[in-house]
Design a protein that fits this description.
Radius of gyration: 23 Å
Largest sheet: 9 strands, mixed
Structural class: alpha/beta
Distance between the termini: 53 Å
CATH superfamily of the largest domain: Alanine racemase
CATH topology of the largest domain: TIM Barrel
Order of helices and strands: HEHEHEHEHEHEEHEEHEHEHEEEEEEEE
Helix content: 25-40%
CATH architecture of the largest domain: Alpha-Beta Barrel
Number of domains: 2
Shape: globular
Length: 427
């Protein structure tokens, strides 16, 4: 596979020539840059993940990975629920057919206004991140005469060793500290019943061993927190961390032994789980949507500069930011694959850049392949998660990429996401 700087080590190309032909046809029809999402891959990812966790467990799709309504609807049809962290994501979940009462609303900065909007939409299950967060949700529910339920997100006291982006098991804005659980238990109000716990410590873990290590800590944390909070029955949301390749060729890691390992962990740590005490839940965004998406783009220039080659694309961090534009993650090390057949030259080293007026608009510092020609159509695979919606959409005001959703050979939808001004209402 490829390192974070984009070095090509796998030597692979498109696994399916028919897919390359399909992408070329779509680019001719709808232009470039263009995100193409394949619903058959969404269905396959959902089936694979359902088979990898214990039978009967709930899986929440985290819309932060990709809130495209067609993708969310496909996952709803597969029996998955929705985890949202904003009113915008909630609107997408509702539009995709998820009833509000089956959505889980989380996030560390919920305002009274968005809590009220969520309650009005039928949401009755929240994940609370602090004592303040619990009190705010309870207060808004009381003011609106609603009865809601919540999961208490817990910041684990220790972290499993492993890769991925870590969110808890360290000082963090996410989750309630164990030292604050007793205070939260004392803050209980009738309008907001504590019905379970929520842990999610890291994302995009490399494989089964890392996942099992994280879930070991998660089950341990859940059991301790349920005891402090005095919870019986209810829900134990064990989070996720299921990995997938990003912006390069590759496949989702297989998980043949995960289900049995999870069942053993649950039998030891939460022995009533088989009878629903507690009901087990998991979350995933990346593993459910990553491999459904491809970004098709065009080479607008190939430049030599002092011994270096720069390949300029019509899509940069405005279309494929992967949140690297925030300066918090390494650039994605994107790898280009040719879409239309061309005479391949010798491999060379190049830097992939976008069209933005900043040297930070870099998709790969070192990409090794045959240098493409100007006007060539190329593509970046595995960008269905944290692609378009995690990018610098408004920077420089460039038109956003087109979005085409396909199911087999059928185009389900073709549209463009636009940023528009709207009137600001006074409070």
């Amino acid at each position: 596979m490829m390192d974070h700087d984009g070095g090509d080590e796998d030597g692979g190309g498109w696994p399916d020539p028919a897919e390359r032909s399909s992408l070329a046809q779509l680019a001719r029809r709808f232009g470039s840059p263009l995100y193409v999402y394949r619903l058959d891959r969404v269905r396959r990812a959902a089936a694979d993940l359902l088979a990898a966790v214990p039978d009967g467990a709930t899986i929440y799709y985290s819309l932060k990975a990709n809130p495209e309504v067609a993708i969310v609807a496909e996952l709803a049809a597969a029996g998955l629920s929705a985890e949202v962290s904003s009113t915008g994501e909630l609107a997408a979940a509702l539009a995709a057919g998820h009833p509000g009462e089956l959505c889980l609303y989380g996030g560390p900065g919920k305002s009274a206004g968005e809590i009220a909007e969520a309650l009005a939409a039928g949401v009755r299950l929240f994940s609370v991140e602090s004592v303040v967060d619990y009190r705010r949700v309870a207060r808004v529910a009381e003011e609106r005469g609603a009865r809601a339920r919540c999961l208490v997100r817990v910041n684990a006291s220790r972290a499993a060793a492993g890769a991925g982006l870590r969110m808890t098991g360290k000082p963090s804005q996410f989750g309630v500290e164990f030292s604050d659980l007793a205070q939260l238990a004392e803050a209980r109000r009738d309008a907001l019943e504590i019905v379970g716990t929520h842990v999610f410590s890291a994302t995009n873990l490399g494989g089964e061993d890392e996942l099992i290590a994280e879930f070991t800590v998660g089950v341990e944390t859940t059991a301790r927190a349920r005891q402090v909070l005095g919870i019986s029955g209810g829900v134990a949301d064990l989070g996720g961390g299921f990995g997938a390749p990003y912006a390069r060729p590759g496949v989702r890691p297989p998980l043949p032994k995960l289900r049995a390992a999870l069942e053993d962990l649950l039998d030891d740590g939460l022995p009533g789980w088989r009878a629903g005490d507690p009901h087990i839940a998991f979350e995933s965004g990346r593993a459910l949507s990553a491999d459904c998406g491809t970004l098709v783009c065009t080479v607008t220039d190939v430049k030599a500069s002092r011994g270096s080659t720069y390949v300029v694309l019509d899509a940069g961090t405005n279309a494929l930011g992967g949140m690297s534009g925030l300066g918090r993650l390494l650039p994605p090390g994107a790898r280009l694959l040719p879409v239309e057949p061309a005479e391949a030259g010798p491999p060379g080293s190049m830097t992939l850049v976008g069209p933005l007026c900043t040297p930070l608009d870099t998709l790969s510092r070192v990409h090794t392949a045959a240098v493409p020609e100007v006007d060539a159509t190329v593509a970046v695979p595995n960008v269905g998660a944290y692609g378009l919606h995690a990018s610098l959409l408004a920077f420089l005001g460039r038109p956003l990429p087109g979005i085409v959703v396909v199911d087999g050979d059928q185009v389900v939808s073709a549209q463009r996401l636009d940023l528009v001004h709207s009137a600001l209402a006074e409070r």
